[in-house]
Input
Amino acid sequence: IIILGIESSCDDTSAAVIRNGVLLSSVIASQAVHEAYGGVVPELASRAHQQNIVPVVHEALKRAGVTKEQLSAIAFTRGPGLMGSLLVGVSFAKGLALALGIPLVDVNHLQGHVLAHFIKESEEDTDQPKFPFICLLVSGGNSQIIRVNAYNDMQVLGQTIDDAAGEAIDKCSKVMGLGYPGGPIIDKLARQGNPDAFTFSKPHIGGYDYSFSGLKTSFLYSLRDWLKDEPDFIEHHKTDLAASLEKTIVDILMDKLRKVVKDTGITEVAVAGGVSANNGLRNAFREHAAKYGWKIYIPKFGYTTDNAAMIAITGYYKYLDKDFCSIDKPAYSRVAL
Ligand code: ATP
Ligand code: FE
Output
């Protein structure tokens, strides 16, 4: 079974080929055009996807050594994401599937982030989570704790009631006048700073839910006060600010996750999404594994942010369930997992 995966939900155009669950190729074209604006500009993203989609798919097939006639099915991100971006990948996938006379498999982008843990780079690659496991999904648009019962059976136990963790990092980074996206920049600065230099407010919210908007405001107001006394405050304390912000976010994420693990008794714990690239969060996972006996799963850096390999592997498992998508199904910008 050979699956072509296509991802175009935000600002990365990506295609990947998977044969019987093993990755043959993965190509990602990122869009530098948004850097100048400090965030993704939807119209520019759609236009870049239009330019990239054909060469990216072509390159993925070429690197996999597979012709389009050998494909068993095409898996594509149907949502959630930016409508104009999604439309490019969705239309392309539908057109190609129709021309080749093969099935289409629609993939929920968030399910893809979780199932990135099942991407195998070779047959020997077998260190994967066992069901049921708990997955912390932290990305640019989502922060959720998910109970994963099977490939196609997931239950959201808790989620953010306002901003996502990645969004909070990106906004605080913007306030500091750093570049976009802020996540990798904050991560790098934080490695050289003191995480206990500053304290920012943490949310008081019950259950397994998250909230990050209060932290964002606390960060903004604290900075404003400090800048009044010292105009070069950010320049002088860049690394400490980054380290303290990162620590606050990691603490918030891990506090709720620990609660879920304790209450469910499930100690297979994974992390997924763009923020799972963060070194502070990765270290916190390793510490929890050592301290509480968790069996942890941390994705390779390349599978944390958006990629089509995660879409292709999700498509593969849906294909095995014969869970196909008819051609009249539209893209969706918002949907629950
Ligand atoms: P969603 O998947 O929720 O639709 P998205 O696709 O935009 O959102 P991802 O691509 O999964 O999100 O992740 C992007 C986010 O990850 C950004 O907010 C980015 O700043 C953050 N990020 C990337 N690398 C790091 C890092 N090393 N440390 C912290 N955050 C990071
Ligand atoms: Fe994503």
